[in-house]
Amino acid sequence: MLCIKVLGKGCEKCTNTAALITAIANNHSISINLIMETNPEIIMDYRVVSSPAVVINERLVHWGSTPQQQMVESWLKI
């Protein structure tokens, strides 16, 4: 199971990012644990200054925009 964190203030871009990741994982029967992290102190631990950001298994893979479907699929190894 992949542990995926979406880091941000809970804005529309952040919720859209979480929804996109969840939908793609569900469509491909990939088991994920998705966490929406809004705590600024925790977000700063990842040295993120632009949200939304995506962390997979504690590795920062994206920040600053809503990712494209192809990007998410590559992260999930589809």
From TrEMBL:
It holds the Pfam family Thioredoxin_3. Gene3D superfamilies: Glutaredoxin. InterPro entries: Thioredoxin-like_fold, Thioredoxin-like_sf, THIRX-like_proc. It comes from the Bacteria. Residues 4-77 form the Thioredoxin-like fold domain. This is Thioredoxin family protein. The lineage of its organism: Bacteria, Pseudomonadati, Pseudomonadota, Gammaproteobacteria, Alteromonadales.
